[in-house]
Design brief:
single chain; mainly alpha
Length: 111
C-alpha cells in the first residue's frame, strides 16, 4: 500500500501563488493609501457609512473573486486525483477478483 501523505493546503502551488498575490495586493493598497495624498492622486475626505461600505466592497471584491477562482482550481485538481485513485482501486479490485476466481475454480470442480 502506498503510504504517501496527501498534499498540505499550505504546500499547494496555487495557495502559495494566492498568498503572494494577496500580500502584493495589500502592500500596493497600503502604499497607495499612504502615498496617494502626497502625490495628489487620492483626496482624503470624510465618508458617509454608505460610501465607506462601498469602498470596503471595492477593496475586498477583487481578492474575493481571486480566491474563489483559486478554490475552484484546487477543487478541480483534487477531483482529478480522486478519479485517478478510484480507477486504480477498481483495477486492483478487478485483479483481486480474477485471482480469487482462479484460486477457487479448481477446488470447486475437484469435488
Amino acid at each position: 500500500m502506498d503510504e504517501r501523505q496527501p498534499p498540505s493546503f499550505l504546500n499547494s502551488r496555487l495557495t502559495k501563488m494566492g498568498l503572494a498575490f494577496t500580500f502584493l495586493y495589500v502592500a500596493a493598497l497600503v502604499l497607495f493609501i499612504y502615498l496617494g495624498p502626497q502625490w495628489g492622486i487620492l483626496k482624503v475626505s470624510p465618508l458617509s457609512l454608505n460610501e465607506l461600505g462601498d469602498l470596503c466592497a471595492g477593496i475586498v471584491g477583487p481578492l474575493t473573486l481571486f480566491w474563489l477562482v483559486l478554490g475552484f482550481l484546487q477543487q478541480a485538481t483534487e477531483l482529478r486525483l480522486q478519479v485517478h485513485e478510484l480507477k486504480l482501486s477498481v483495477d486492483q479490485q478487478r485483479e483481486l477478483s480474477v485471482s480469487y476466481t482462479h484460486l477457487t475454480l479448481p477446488t470447486i470442480y475437484s469435488v
